[in-house]
C-alpha cells in the first residue's frame, strides 16, 4: 500500500523542526570550555519602590518573586501629532498596558531549567501613521488596533549550565532576532521590528503586535562570546482573510499552524563584555519563508501588472528570503556616563519584496547630564528602499509619482522622574511618507514633522 505524501506545508515544517533537532544535539562538547553565565538582574526599576503608599504591593511582589513567580506590569501612554506634512495633519493618543508573568519552575516545582512565560497587551487609542502620516516606518512602536491581545505564551527548557535553551509555544521573533540593544531607546517602531521584515513578511511576520506558534533553539549563554539562534515559526500569524491582519487575528489567539513556515537563524558574537574596554556585539542573520509570494510587477502571462493588457493575476514566486546584520558598539564610557552606536542593515530579493534594502543606525548617550545618571538621549536614522519591481509597477500603471524610498530621523530624550517612571519628549521627521506616494491632488505626499511626549510607568 502506498503511503500518502505530506503536503508542502507539513513537509516544510518537518524539515525545519528536524534541523532544529540536529542543532540542539551538539552543545555538550563546547559547554565545557564556555564561561559561566553571570547572574541576571532580579528585577526591573519599579515605581512601587518610589511611592511609600505602594510599599505593601511591592512586598507582595517580592514574596511572589522569592517563590518563583515574577510579575511585571507597565503602562505606556503618549501624545503624538504631525503639525505639518503627511496625508493630513492631526494628533492622537496611544496607550498600552502590558502584563507579563514568568514562572520559575525550579523554585515552584523543583524542575531545573524550566521557565513558563506569558504576556499580553491592552492597547488603546489610534495610530498616527495609520490615520495621518501614512508612512511605513511606523511612528510609534506601540501603535496597533485597539484590543486586548495575547502576545507570547511559551515554555523554555535550559540545560548544560544554561548553554542550551529550547523554547516552544507562541513566540515573537522581535524579542531575540534582528535586535539592537541601543535602538530600544527610540519610539519609532522601525527601530524595533524593522520595516524590512514588517513590510515584507506575510501579515508583518512574528513581530509586534503578533507572535505565532514556533520552536526556538539557542546555543550559548548570555555570558558566552558566541551564541547561535535558530527558530521555525508559523509563516503567517494572521492568515489571508481579506482584511487588515490585526482584524484577522485581533486577540492573538489564532495559534495558526497551517501556513508555510518561516525559518530564522542568527549568529551573535560579543566582545569586551567586562568592565574594561568598550563592549560590542556583532550579529549576522537570515530568514526564509517557504510560502508562495506574488511577483510585484508581472502577471502569470509575463505582462506588466500595471498595464491594461494584464490579466491582473500576479505570477507566483516560490519562497522569500533575506539577510541582515547588526552592530552594537560602545564608543565611550567614563564615570557612569557612556555613548554607543548601533547599525542594522538587511537585503532581500526585489521581485517579491516591497522593501528590498533597509538600513538604520544611531547614537545614544546615557548619564551625561549632571545629577541625572539615569537619563538618556539619542539620534536615530532609518532608510527603507522601495524595490525596483514595486517602483516598476507604479511606472507601468502610469502612477502620478513613483515610490522610491522612505526615511525617518528621530531625536529623543528619556528623563527619569522617579525610579520606574520616565517621560520622553520626541521629535521625528518622516521623509517621503509611504515611500513617496501621491496625495489626492496627484502630488507627492509632503514630508512630515512629528512631535510627541511619552510616559512610561513600570509597576
UniProtKB/TrEMBL annotation:
It holds the Pfam family OprB. One of its GO terms (cellular component) is membrane. GO terms for biological process: carbohydrate transport. The keyword Signal applies. The keyword Signal applies. InterPro entries: Carb-sel_porin_OprB, OprB_Porin, OprB_sf. Keywords: Signal. GO terms for molecular function: porin activity. Residues 1-30 form the signal peptide. Belongs to the OprB family. This is Carbohydrate porin. The lineage of its organism: Bacteria, Pseudomonadati, Pseudomonadota, Alphaproteobacteria, Hyphomicrobiales.
Amino acid at each position: 500500500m502506498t503511503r500518502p505524501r505530506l503536503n508542502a506545508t507539513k513537509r516544510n515544517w518537518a524539515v525545519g523542526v528536524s534541523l532544529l533537532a540536529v542543532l540542539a544535539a551538539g552543545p555538550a562538547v563546547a559547554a565545557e570550555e564556555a564561561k559561566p553565565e553571570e547572574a541576571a538582574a532580579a528585577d526591573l526599576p519599579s515605581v512601587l519602590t518610589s511611592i511609600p503608599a505602594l510599599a505593601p504591593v511591592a512586598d507582595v511582589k517580592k514574596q511572589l518573586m522569592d517563590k518563583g513567580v515574577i510579575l511585571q506590569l507597565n503602562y505606556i501612554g503618549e501624545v503624538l501629532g504631525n503639525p505639518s506634512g503627511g496625508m493630513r495633519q492631526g494628533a492622537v493618543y496611544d496607550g498600552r498596558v502590558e502584563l507579563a508573568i514568568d514562572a520559575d519552575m525550579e523554585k515552584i516545582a523543583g524542575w531545573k531549567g524550566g521557565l513558563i512565560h506569558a504576556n499580553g497587551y491592552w492597547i488603546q487609542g489610534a495610530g498616527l501613521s495609520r490615520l495621518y502620516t501614512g508612512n511605513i516606518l511606523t511612528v510609534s512602536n506601540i501603535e496597533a488596533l485597539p484590543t486586548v491581545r495575547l502576545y507570547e505564551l511559551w515554555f523554555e527548557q535550559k540545560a548544560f549550565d544554561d548553554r542550551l535553551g529550547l523554547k516552544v509555544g507562541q513566540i515573537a521573533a522581535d524579542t531575540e532576532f534582528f535586535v539592537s540593544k541601543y535602538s530600544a531607546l527610540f519610539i519609532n517602531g522601525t527601530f524595533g521590528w524593522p520595516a524590512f521584515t514588517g513590510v515584507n513578511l506575510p501579515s508583518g511576520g512574528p513581530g509586534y503586535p503578533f507572535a505565532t506558534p514556533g520552536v526556538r533553539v539557542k546555543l550559548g549563554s548570555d555570558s558566552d562570546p558566541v551564541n547561535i539562534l535558530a527558530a521555525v515559526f508559523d509563516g503567517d500569524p494572521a492568515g489571508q482573510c481579506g482584511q487588515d491582519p490585526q482584524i484577522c487575528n485581533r486577540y492573538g489567539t489564532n495559534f495558526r499552524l497551517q501556513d508555510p513556515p518561516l525559518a530564522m537563524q542568527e549568529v551573535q558574537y560579543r566582545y569586551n563584555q567586562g568592565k574594561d574596554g568598550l563592549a560590542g556585539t556583532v550579529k549576522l542573520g537570515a530568514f526564509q519563508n517557504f510560502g508562495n509570494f506574488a511577483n510585484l510587477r508581472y502577471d502569470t502571462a509575463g505582462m506588466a501588472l500595471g498595464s491594461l493588457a494584464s490579466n491582473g493575476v500576479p505570477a507566483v514566486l516560490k519562497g522569500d528570503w533575506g539577510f541582515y546584520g547588526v552592530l552594537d558598539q560602545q564608543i565611550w564610557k567614563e564615570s557612569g556616563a557612556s555613548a554607543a552606536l548601533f547599525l542594522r542593515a538587511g537585503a532581500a530579493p526585489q521581485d517579491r519584496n516591497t522593501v528590498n534594502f533597509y538600513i538604520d543606525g544611531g547614537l545614544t548617550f546615557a548619564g551625561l547630564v549632571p545629577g541625572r545618571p539615569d537619563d538618556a538621549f539619542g539620534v536615530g536614522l532609518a532608510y527603507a528602499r522601495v524595490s525596483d519591481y514595486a517602483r516598476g509597477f507604479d511606472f507601468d500603471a502610469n502612477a502620478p509619482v513613483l515610490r522610491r524610498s522612505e526615511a525617518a530621523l528621530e531625536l529623543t530624550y528619556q528623563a527619569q522622574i522617579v525610579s520606574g517612571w520616565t517621560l520622553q519628549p520626541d521629535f521625528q521627521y518622516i521623509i517621503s511618507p509611504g515611500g513617496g506616494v501621491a496625495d489626492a491632488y496627484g502630488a507627492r505626499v509632503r514630508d512630515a514633522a512629528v512631535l510627541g511626549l511619552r510616559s512610561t510607568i513600570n509597576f
